Amino acid sequence: MPQKEIVTKYGELAIKTGVNVQQGQGLIINAPIEAVDFVRSLTKEAYKAGAKNVHIQWSDDQLTYLKMQHAPLAVLENFPTWQAEGLIEMVKDGYSLLTVYGPDPDLLNGIDGERISAVTKASAKALSEYRDYVMNDRVTWSIVGYASEAWAKKVFPDLPLDEAQEKLWEQIFFITRVDQDDPVAAWQKHNQTLKSAREYLNEKQYKKLIYRAEGTDLTIYLPNGHIWQGGSGPSDKGIEFNANIPTEEVYTLADKYGVNGTVVSTKPLSYGGNIINNFSLTFKDGKVIDFTAEEGEEALKNMLDTDEDGARRLGEVALVPHESPISKSGLIFYNTLFDENASCHLALGKAYPTSIKNGSTMSKEELDQHGVNDSLIHEDFMIGSSEMNIDGVTEEGETEAIFRNGNWAIQI
Fold first, then answer.
1. Which of the listed residues 20, 166, 236, 342 has the most CB atoms within 10 Å of its CB?
2. Could you count the other beta carbons within 10 Å of the beta carbon of residue 285?
3. At CA 37, angle to CA 41 and CA 87, rounded to 5?
C-alpha cells in the first residue's frame, strides 16, 4: 500500500463523497482480502463519520477460481439463500454499500462458459430485490478502485510487480483527484461540471441520438421523460452520494425497442473473469440480432444469452469526453470502473429506473410500457474514440451536434 496519509485521504473520499455515511447508519463493504489494510482504513473513517456498524464481505480470487473449476455445476447454479436474505435485511435497514474493486481481468480464463453463466444467473436472481434497492437509489452506494497485484500486472505487464502496483496506485490517485490538497472539495467542483452537462441535456429532451464513427452507425431513441444523471445525486432520502469514483460520465437510458444499427467496441471489456475485445453488436428494434468478437466471443454470447430478452437490449447511454483524465493517461485499465470513464459507453441489460420520470415508483409492467429495459445483467462496454460524432435530434426534427471528434460540441 502507498503511504498512510494518501490512503487515509482516499478512504475519507470514499466514505464522505462516495457513500456519504450518515450518523447512525450501517455500511456494507465488499472487498478482496488482499485489500485488508485499505478496508481497515475505510472502516475507521466510517466509524468516524458516525456509522453504527461496518459489515465486511470478503472475497478471494484464488478461492473463486478453485470453486469455479471444481465445484459441481449444481452448486454453482444455487446462490445461498441465507446470504441473499442477510444483504436484503441490511439494505432494508438503510445500510450503505461500498465496493472495493480490483479484480483479476483474466481470472476465469479457461473456465467453461456454462459454469460462469450459471453463477451469474444464480446470483442475479437471488439478489434481485437487493439490486433493486441499489438501482433505485434507496441506499447510497459507491465503487472505488484497488490496485490489486493481478490487476496491476495486467495494466503494466513489463514492470516488476511492486513497480506495477506503485504505478497503478499513482494513476488511481491522480484520476480520483486524491493527489490534490483537498480531494473532497475537488470532487464538489467536478460534480458541478457534470451537473451543468446533465442540466443542458435534460432541458433539450432529445428524441434520439445518432452515433457515427469508424464501424459505428447507430441510432438510439430516448423514452419520453428520460432523465440525464451524472456525478453526485440524491438517494430517495435526499442524501447526496457519488456512485462511482472515478466518474466522468453523464448518462440516461435508451428506449429498449428503439435502437437500430451497428456499434463497435473501442476498448476491451472485462466480463466474468474473461476479456472480450474488438467486438461489434448489430441492433434491430432494440435487440442485438448479430455480433462478432475477435477475442472472447463465447463470453460475449454467454452474456447476451443471460436471460431471454433483456441482456440483448440497452439499459444505459453514457457520454464521456475523449479528453477525460482517464483517456489522457493513454492506458487501457481492463477494468470497467476506469475504462468506462475514459470513453462514451453503452450498457447491455437492466436500466436504472431513476433515469426516467417517476421510474422508481413504477411497477415492472409500467417500466416496460415506458421502454425501460429489465435484465439480470447490467454490463457497460466502451464505444467512444477521438473520431466519435454524436448528434441529438429534437422533438421538432432538428439535428444538433452534441459530440464532435470525441468531445463536447456544446458549452458546459
1. 342
2. 11
3. 75
pLDDT digits 0-9 by tens, 188-204: 999 999 999 999 999 99
User: Is residue 149 pLDDT above 80, yes or no?
Assistant: yes
List, for residues 18-68, the tens digit of each pLDDT value.
Answer: 999 999 999 999 999 999 999 999 999 999 999 999 999 999 999 999 999
- Report whether 192 contacts 240 (CB < 8 A): no
**What is the number of domains present in the chain?**
2
The number of beta carbons lying within 10 Å of the beta carbon of residue 106 is 16
Residue 131 in any domain: the answer is: yes
pLDDT at 4: 86
CA 140 to centroid of chain Cα atoms: 15
pLDDT at 412 over 80: no
- Distance from C-alpha of 61 to C-alpha of 114, rounded to nearest angstrom: 19
Using one digit for the tens of pLDDT, what is the confidence trace for 340-362?
999 999 999 999 999 999 999 99
pLDDT surpasses 80 at 252: yes
Task: Please report whether residue 83 resides in a domain.
Answer: yes
CATH code of the domain containing 37: 3.40.1830.10
Same domain? For 149 and 216 the reply is: no
Give bridge partners of residue 53 from the DSSP assignment.
26
Q: What is the pLDDT of residue 326?
A: 93
27, 132: one domain: yes
Q: Point out the domain boundary residue: 130, 145, 175.
A: 175
Q: Please check whether residues 31 and 159 belong to one and the same domain.
A: yes
Mark which of 175, 206, 224 sits at the end of a domain. Answer: 175
| C-alpha span between 295 and 288 (Å, rounded) | 18
Q: Same domain, yes or no, for 212 and 168?
A: no
> In sequence order, which residues have a C-beta less than 8 Å from that of residue 55 and are 6 or more positions away?
26, 27, 28, 29, 90, 95
Range of the domain at 221: 191-239+247-408
Residues 145 and 61 in one domain: yes
Residue 335 pLDDT exceeds 90: yes
Q: Name the grid cell of 49.
A: 463519520
Global pTM value: 0.93
Alpha helices in 176-287 (DSSP H): 183-204
